[in-house]
Amino acid sequence: MERKAISMSHNMKGILDDDYTLYNDGTILHLYDKHTYPGGQNIEEYLTVADLSQALKQRLFNSAKEEDKELVRVVLDL
User: In angstroms, how far is the first alpha carbon of the chain from the final one?
Assistant: First the structure.
């Protein structure tokens, strides 16, 4: 199965990025900034659905395209 992004949620904490991308295989890419100093920007980490809060799951669900919402609901176990 080809991995496909099914939801992307972009957020800012002040001037710091806090973005999540949910893939159809259940992996989540978290791209964020810790601070504005060198080495603190564009940090990537991969998460699982179990790592997400209910609020973040809802944020990803709300960000999904209408045609992907049911798949997002299943993947996130909402």
Answer: 23
